[in-house]
Specification:
Helix content: under 10%
Number of strands: 24
Number of helices: 2
GO molecular function, one term: carbohydrate binding
Structural class: mainly beta
Keywords: Isomerase
Catalytic activity: alpha-D-glucose 6-phosphate = beta-D-glucose 6-phosphate
CATH topology: Beta-galactosidase, Chain A, domain 5
Protein name: Putative glucose-6-phosphate 1-epimerase
Shape: globular
Enzyme class: isomerase
């Protein structure tokens, strides 16, 4: 299903319209500064393009828009856990229906806020009270902030990630700096590894970098640009590219999809549910990513 398959429903503001896409509510942003699209299913941004520029966010041309699963591409919200430390994998936020809280706009940006709260459905898999707010600030720069509040009477732990898929011209002509030199290799039974600072994408990669700099840069040589990813509230950064074999095994990704994408994720990593970041009753924490594109020097 393509973005062009969206059916218009209503205008919310000069820059925001609501659409329907295979039964999912979509917020489409068209402003002087950018074009973007967000699915309320998953609180999932799946398009971002600054005016006059190329797409920054990658979306699979075989992505499935359904209430049953997460969208392949965009920025899945992995919460309240990351990875397979609980079920479902990567938590329930990316397949839950978020509510539009509010929106506003000015000459510089459009801001959209979504909310997800504890419910009978969430308590089946995670027996805690919470309120989570996703804030998207959409202008020449993309900012996403996930704020979570413990609204219950007992503490709980969380982990998570803003699982951002970036569009690149060609994986083998792309390199990444700022991730650091220490990582856990998920393809080698979580083996701790050391490497040189620059990461060349020429094989299957699934790494949790444990000492990243605040800003990680994706040098997208084919598109003559650098994508700078500023993360906050994180303790690590995940970098992922499925490469050939895994791409071919995924029904919602084309066989050559790996060639034009790489994930660089703001991540609060924990090896299990019990070792996640502690949030006491009434406390709040946040995880955010800010994405800026500059021309390559």
């Amino acid at each position: 299903m393509l973005i062009n398959d969206m059916i218009f429903e209503e205008t919310l503001s000069p820059s925001i319209a609501r659409y329907n896409m295979n039964g999912l509510a979509i917020l489409k942003v068209q402003s002087p500064k950018c074009e973007a699209a967000i699915s309320l299913h998953g609180g999932h941004l799946f398009q971002f393009k600054p005016t006059g520029e190329q797409d920054v966010i990658w979306l699979s041309n075989k992505a499935i828009f359904s209430e049953e699963k997460a969208i392949r591409g965009g920025v899945p919200v992995c919460w309240p856990w990351f990875g397979q430390v609980g079920s479902p994998s990567h938590g329930f936020a990316r397949t839950s229906n978020w509510q539009l809280l509010d929106h506003e706009e000015n000459e510089q940006a459009v801001t959209i806020r979504l909310k997800l709260s504890a419910s009978k459905q969430t308590r089946v898999v995670w027996p805690h009270d919470f309120s989570a707010v996703l804030t998207f600030t959409l202008g020449e720069t993309l900012r996403i902030n996930l704020e979570m509040i413990n609204t219950g009477e007992t503490p709980w732990q969380w982990s998570g990630a803003l699982h951002t898929y970036f569009a690149i011209a060609e994986a083998t002509e792309t390199w990444i700096t700022g991730a650091g030199t220490s990582y856990i290799d998920s393809l080698k039974n979580d083996l701790p590894c050391e490497t040189t600072e620059a990461l060349i994408i020429n094989q299957s990669i699934d790494r949790i970098y444990t000492t990243p700099e605040e800003t990680i840069s994706i040098h997208d040589q084919g598109n003559q640009r650098t994508i700078n990813v500023l993360n906050r509230g994180h303790n690590s950064a995940v970098i992922w590219n499925p490469w050939k074999d895994l791409s071919r095994s995924m029904g919602d990704m084309s066989d050559d999809g790996y060639e034009t994408m790489v994930c660089v994720e703001a991540t609060q990593y924990a090896k299990d549910l019990a070792s996640g970041s502690l949030l006491m009753p009434g406390e709040k924490q946040s995880l955010s990513t800010e994405i800026t594109v500059t021309s390559a020097e």
